[in-house]
Amino acid sequence: MSDRKIPKDLDCGMAMIMEIIGGKWKPCLIHNISRGYKRPSELQRLNPKATRRVLYQQLTELEGYGIIEKVIFPVLPPKVEYSLTSLGMSLLPVIRVMDDWGTQYLENPGQHPTLKTA
Amino acid sequence: MSDRKIPKDLDCGMAMIMEIIGGKWKPCLIHNISRGYKRPSELQRLNPKATRRVLYQQLTELEGYGIIEKVIFPVLPPKVEYSLTSLGMSLLPVIRVMDDWGTQYLENPGQHPTLKTA
DNA sequence: AGCTATAGGGATAATTTTAGCCCTATGCTA
DNA sequence: TAGCATAGGGCTAAAATTATCCCTATAGCT
């Protein structure tokens, strides 16, 4: 995440938003958090196919871009809560439009010639 | 593109649209084609940082998902033209919303705490 | 003859992303 | 005491994506 060999050029808006939400689990995380699931352990249970590690990484990236906010409670066992910032909330309609289009695509077989889902 | 070790699960719409437009150059290609640039050589000139190979690969994927259509003219030297299908056109507003959000993000510095663009 | 341009695609290397381990610490409960 | 849950993060391996090279073929131009 720090020393890339090939620099990213976030030249256009498209590249920028892809950088922000393009991770494998990021849209899921944003969606989950927007629905009130705040704690890492909850998010992990909601995405059992992802490892804790990756979720943590992608949460950190989202936090870095100002999409979510993190509150650490100084208790034991540790407690952490994430929530969407206003910037993060402004992303919700975008994600919704994307998801809607994708859902339409999925529901409409015959449109996708070589869909080898596996 | 054929034998992946880890199967993709295109379970939700979000995963589906990411699979379709998630490639590094795909949004650019769709955008370019929507603006009337049809031939591979044109697209290549418009995206000089991408290699011919990658553009060709991503065009093939877009074609496979029914986003663009390819017409091969049986002439020499070879001539090929791509165009958006109606499905591809239905994607334009989605891409536009995404690009708009990203552009807003770029234009609004201070929103992004740890943006290490490099 | 040697150069250009055109488009396709094989083979492999480089790079980035994701997965899968490990270990830290503490308080609770069986 | 042993096991569980909680959250963070180092380290390495696996997998996926992109980049970079190679070659095919033909027509036109100098």
Describe this structure as you would to a colleague.
Chains A, B: This is Transcriptional regulator. The structure is a homodimer of 118-residue chains. Chain A has 118 residues and is mainly alpha-helical. In chain A, strands 1-2 form a two-stranded antiparallel sheet. Chain A has 5 helices and 2 strands. Chain A has a domain at 13-90: Winged helix-like DNA-binding domain superfamily/Winged helix DNA-binding domain (Arc Repressor Mutant, subunit A), CATH 1.10.10. Chains A and B meet through helix 1, helix 2 and helix 5 of A and helix 1, helix 2 and helix 5 of B. Chain A binds a DNA duplex (30 and 30 nucleotides) through helix 4.
Mean pLDDT of chain A: 89
CATH architecture of the domain at 13-90 in chain A: Orthogonal Bundle
Count of helix runs of chain A = 5
Uncertain runs of chain A: none
InterPro entries (chains A, B): HTH_HxlR, WH-like_DNA-bd_sf, WH_DNA-bd_sf
GO molecular function (chains A, B): DNA binding
Protein name (chains A, B): Transcriptional regulator
Pfam families (chains A, B): HxlR
Please sum up the structure shown.
The structure is a homodimer of 118-residue chains. With 118 residues, chain A is mainly alpha-helical. Chain A has 5 helices and 2 strands.
Secondary-structure map:
The structure is a homodimer of 118-residue chains.
Chain A: H1 13-21, H2 26-34, H3 40-46, H4 52-64, E1 68-73, E2 79-84, H5 86-107
Antiparallel strand pairs in A: 1-2
Helix pairs in contact in A: 2-5
The first copy, chain A, binds a DNA duplex (30 and 30 nucleotides) through residues 4-6, 23-25, 39-41, 50-54, 56-57, 72, 75-80.
